[in-house]
User: What shape does this take?
Amino acid sequence: MPRHDILVALFSFNEGEKLKSIISQFPSDRPYDLLFVDDGSNDGSFEFLKENNYEVIRHETNRGIGCGIREAISFGRQNDYKILVIMAANGKMRPTEISRLTDPIINEGYDYLQGSRNLPGGQSPHLPFFRKVMINLFTEIVNLFMEFKGTDITCGFRAYKLSLFSNPRFNLDQSWLDKYEMEYYIHYHVLKGGYRVKEAPVSMVYPAQTKDYSKIKPFSGWWSMVRPWIYLILKIRK
Assistant: This one.
């Protein structure tokens, strides 16, 4: 049984020392529980988590972030959590900012909090220029089709009220949602479902070197983020 109402899920694939570093940033008296989803790591990450008695969902092979989010949602609902926070375990996001996402849900009744590096109080040091341009362009294109006008559609630091997923409009078991599609599928249905949505300023801290700053592949990764909007707006998928 959970000690708290909030579950923070961290997603990892061969993050090694970055994983250990972000774990060290969590306070011991944290008002939330941790869940790690290891997506087929072969660098000892899974063994490290098990040896230190963390709750872990393990994939034997790399299946994708969407699959991990689906399993984290299922774990949270089965164990009676009220709020799920999702974040990468690669050190770009800061555990000290989790409350920026959860407090509006707890205190103001919001259903979904989207992190934004573009709001005042947010930041993204060392973000490569091309990626910044693509993030802003993608955000503006999505805003053309949505009533809610966001500032940072691609930030993966988010929080959901888990009761959202009792609504049958969220068909999370579709296999095409296994990768980056899942986050945008949920985002679309939250907005179209009339739920209360808000952005919160967060940090996305990129490494100073430009090499290997992201696991998103240049073409397939961006297509994975774009196609949910095409499929859902054109009603190709539900």
